Amino acid sequence: METIGKILLIDDEPNTLKVLSAILKKNRYDVITAKTAEEGLDRLAKFEVDLVITDYRLPGMNGAGFVDAIRSSGRKMPVIVLTAYGSIEKAVDAMKRGAFSYLAKPVNPDALLTSAREAIEKHRLILENISLKSQLKERNSFKNIVGKSKVMQDFFTMIETVGRSHSSVLISGESGTGKELVARAIHYVSPRADGPFITIDCASLPEALLESELFGHEKGAFTTAYDRKVGQIELGQGGTVLLDEVGELPLSLQKKFLRFLQEREILRVGGKTRIKVDVRIIAATNRNLEALVKESAFREDLFYRLNVVSLTVPPLRDRKDDIPLLARHFLGRLNEENRKAINGIEVEVMQLFMDHDWPGNVRELENTIERAVVLCPSDTITTPHLPASLRGKSRAAEEPAGEMNFSTVEKRLLLGALGKTSWNQTRAAEVLGISRKQLRTKMKHHGLLTEE
What we know:
The protein has 20 helices and 16 strands. The chain is α/β, with parallel strands linked by helices. Helix 1 (14-26) links the parallel strand 1 and strand 2. The two termini are 59 Å apart.
């Protein structure tokens, strides 16, 4: 029979241990017993438990001291204290020290089971929330932006530095470089990390709806305004709002948005009362805003308000050292999503990846890996699984057998060793029978490693 939790039960009275243990086991709990607090601590060193139930009056260390010992060790499981009716104040003291609750002796079986269930459920809920928050922060931190090249390490340092401020940020970069990921990273390393992160796509909404989306509207503001709507900026209170593709923001709204940046107040469409809003604004664009300013397509004063701090996301062609790392990152995630077990990328495929200019940047690489994962029937991605645009650049097709020069052979040997060792340079050097320093020199020579 499957158990629903593991409980450590401590009492120096053998009959109490026997009775309470039987009640708990009958209701599908796994029970470990001890007769002293010291023995209980020894049990905790050996077993993971969901709950501790202990008598307050024990030989040696008492219940309150035992709770202190558990908490000082960093353990978080709940503790229920058993106490005689005349010693309730001692149990209350134990609760002040961190115990979950207490039960008076003789223990009522229903009260015991109810308290045990509530303690374990609450503790598991707390652990789940901690785990989810940790996963969310991890997913949205700069660690989710994959890259070990020097250019990306410098960029990560900039993200952390900018994140600590409250200033507006303008993120520019080509399509597919991951501007939204950078914006999220800035938010999650900032003092506003516990606040909301709101994304507004300025290019996806018609001008008639964009003002309402930004600032909200009051009931009756226009024909279809049947109810009050809170705008995205207001929903971002205490957090960060990303204006994605800000270069597409209509001129008619640029003035209103500038006023918001200046006064930190919004006015809902059809509203009469200005509302104070505390948000950090991050803007992202793949367009040259300075050129738009010269063309009178973007307000100069708004540009300078947004461009307090400027970040440019490097295109993938400028950080090719990261391609193998990115390819394996996407392969791992897409394997999981598609329930595949592809564990290799053919040397020729990786060579094509390294030679390609990636005009669509990281997004293009991700789409290429996804296509390959879907089409690949084996455990290794090969050239037939790639788009025609990449297959056409295959060096094997360009170089007839017997005509490959030494440089080409050496590069393929390097790629083969690196591919087998997941680009671990120390292990790859061992495979090739050379030193790590020699390996790095050869990698730099063949464009597989940039100068640091």
